[in-house]
Structure formats: structure tokens, C-alpha cells
Design a protein that fits this description.
The chain is α/β, with parallel strands linked by helices. Helices cover 22% and strands 25% of the residues. The strands form 4 sheets. Strands 3-4-5-6 form a 4-stranded mixed β-sheet. Strands 1-2 form a two-stranded antiparallel ribbon.
């Protein structure tokens, strides 16, 4: 488990990455241990005329900073939950034994070949255990992240440096447009001094939680 080496599909473990929240490393060790014990097969691309092999294609881990727990997404090489046989249910059962580590466990079914990580078809997602939303206070706004919604990998730095830098360049009482906004981590934080704010994103899952995020803005 790790990241691809530059220009390749060779996975490089990064247990000492300074950007990672330390609980990411704990969660990776826990997941790796159970996956090995259950003989979960890592995904291998099609080669030498053979179709793709294996089960686990990618993982996504997101830390809820308030609790330190991990929202886990398993990208599985299967079309449906029934096609996963017993490997996936057994893995999730073991992970549930550590509620001190895991916030929730979700699966995305992805059988297409290529570099696309997630299958965004609504039927390709299944929550297996735990809450559906991860809660994060960023700036003056409380945000709710579904597994399908992009979030910055290093929220501490994003909140401490990027957001204040962007906001410092927005004149008071401006009209603000945030493109590719996700759930509006920058745009909604600009609302305190802006005349009006527009957030735009092509991820359909944003619509399900954006209003909930906006409702957390201070009334003044």
C-alpha cells in the first residue's frame, strides 16, 4: 500500500511521509495485516493477453481531525457486492473490531480498465459500516464529506495557509465565484466578507451536502 512512483504503476510505500496524519499509518498497518491474513489479492492490470486479476484496486483514507478516526473507501474489482464473494465481508468484519481506528468503511465497485480510480455511478457505491458523512470544521464553516467528495490531503496546511492567503486577496463586498469548488471549502469561508458567493462543481454528490455545509455559516 502506498502511492505510485512517478511515471509508473509501481506502488511505493510511504510510511514516513511527513504530510500524512499519523493515524493514516496506523490504519494502513491494520488494513494490510487483515488483507494479508485473508489473502486479499491486489489488483493487476491486464497483460500478456490475460484479463485483469485481483480484488483490491485502490484505497482512500480520510482523517476526521476531531476524532482522529479514518473514513475508508475500498475500490474493489467487482461489479456488485454479490460478486465480491466472502473476501470483502470478512475484511470489513475484522475492521469493525477496531472502532477506535475506523470512522466508517465504504466500497466502490470498479471494473473498468485504465487509470480512473472511482466509478461515480450511484449503484457503484455501498456504505458497509459507520456514518455516511465525515465532519470537519474548516475556518468558520462545518463541512460534511461523503466518500465521493474530494478533500485536500493535508487539511491542516490548507486551513492554515491556503484559505487565508486566498481570502486576503478578495476585496470586501465582492462577488466571488469558486470553480471546481467541491463543497465550497474556500467559497463558503469567503462568505463572511463577500457580497455574494457562487460555488460550482460537476460532482453530482456535492448537491447532497452543500446546503448542509452552507447552513453552518454564522448568521451574521
Amino acid at each position: 500500500l502506498g502511492l505510485y512512483k512517478a511515471g509508473s504503476h509501481v506502488v511505493e510505500p510511504i510510511p514516513n511521509c511527513a504530510v500524512h496524519h499519523p493515524n493514516i499509518n496506523i490504519a494502513i498497518d491494520e488494513l494490510k495485516q487483515h488483507a494479508l491474513q485473508l489473502n486479499v489479492r491486489g489488483y493487476e492490470e491486464a497483460k500478456n493477453g490475460l484479463p485483469p486479476q485481483g480484488e483490491l484496486r485502490y484505497i482512500q483514507m480520510s482523517v476526521e481531525r476531531g476524532t482522529g478516526k479514518i473514513q475508508l473507501v475500498l475500490v474493489w474489482n467487482a461489479a456488485t457486492y454479490k460478486d465480491c464473494e466472502q473476501t470483502l465481508p470478512r475484511l470489513v468484519k475484522r475492521l469493525k473490531g477496531r472502532p477506535d481506528i475506523w470512522h466508517s468503511v465504504h466500497v466502490n465497485f470498479q471494473t473498468s480498465e485504465g487509470n480512473t480510480i472511482f466509478n461515480y455511478n450511484a449503484k457503484a457505491w455501498k456504505s458497509l459500516w459507520g456514518p455516511s458523512l465525515l465532519r470537519e470544521k474548516i475556518g468558520n464553516v462545518t463541512f460534511f464529506f461523503q466518500p465521493q467528495i474530494f478533500r485536500q490531503a493535508n487539511l491542516n496546511e490548507f486551513e492554515a495557509s491556503i484559505i487565508p492567503t486566498v481570502l486576503s486577496h478578495i476585496p470586501p463586498n465582492s462577488t466571488v465565484s469558486e470553480l471546481y469548488s467541491g463543497i465550497g471549502t474556500v467559497g463558503l469561508n469567503a462568505a463572511a466578507t463577500a457580497k455574494e458567493v457562487y460555488c460550482s462543481d460537476n460532482n453530482e454528490y456535492v448537491d447532497e451536502v452543500f446546503d448542509k455545509c452552507a447552513d453552518s455559516l454564522p448568521e451574521e
